[in-house]
Amino acid sequence: MLKQTMLCLSESRTARALVTHAPFAHRAARRFVAGETIDDAMRAARALNQAGMTVTIDNLGESVESEADARAAADAYLEVLDRIATDGIDGNISVKLTQMGQDIGPEFLHDNVRRILERAAELDIFVRFDMEDSEHTQPTLDFVASLWDEGYEEIGIVLQSYLRRTRDDAASASARSLRVRLCKGAYAEPPTVAFPDKKDVDANYVETMKLLLRDGHYPGIATHDPKMIDAAKAFVAEQGIDTSRFEFQMLYGVRRDLQRQLVKEGYRMRVYLPFGDAWYPYLMRRMAERPANLFFIVGNVLKERRH
Questions:
Q1: What is the pLDDT of residues 246-291, one digit of tens each?
Q2: Cα(218)–Cα(41) distance, rounded to whole angstroms?
Q3: Which residues are catalytic?
Q4: Where are the strands (E) in 194-236, listed by range?
Q5: Residue 276 and residue 252: Cα distance in Å, rounded?
Q6: What are the Cα distances from residue 95, in Å, to 66, 77, 112, 138?
Q7: Which of 94, 138, 153, 173 could form a disulfide with 58, with the two C-beta atoms 3.0–4.6 Å apart?
Q8: Which of helix, strand or coil describes residue 93?
């Protein structure tokens, strides 16, 4: 019931108009979204850099249906890349393929993404391709593999430990020296493709994390879970893995206390930094995909305040 309500609200123009014009909504959104403009993203990125953290910048948007909108999204990323370079930001970008036209057609997608990759290569900026729901998992992996075979090697993917297939996907990525961000995943999926129990998701996270830390190419350990962080710390200490060979990653605005603590301890920390005027559907859909996210966010805010 809650999920369906969230989905309806995310698609309602009336609800969007009411919420996006409400001061409290903007204050809540700004906790987790840098703002609506590239200038907002650059300001947040500079502040994080000054705090000893790197960033990956995400221009919000997904499931684009028109070529014009997909081209416009790519154009925005070209501007982000230029600003990263001219502003001296220590960061890279994260791109969703459905925003680039993945559901429009493979040829269009390739041409649109290639514009971003060519500019990123000129500026020596890494590009990460986000992972969405399980229907897009294999197409995304196939697409990134094809880019790799074309010679684009400063690219990476995201894998989600709640999917049953993820450990095998991580092994394949490691064999290619493809950089992986490992997260738990937040989409609602059937038990045939995803673990329904948190303990199994966590167990798969730890096993996949160990594989990536041991055999992978500079993995991103993306988690706010202290148990997963402690497991990573213990494993790298046991295996003698230097902290320069991986990084922790967290979402903008979530467990900022942990972010600062890890930097203080000498670990590398990258913050996933979203911006854009699509913040309302972004937040609502995250809640709809998995209503537990709502309690997760509220819980982490309360934990940080206690600290």
A1: 999 998 988 899 999 999 999 999 999 999 987 676 676 656 544 5
A2: 25
A3: 130, 181
A4: 220-222
A5: 14
A6: 17, 8, 12, 16
A7: 94
A8: strand
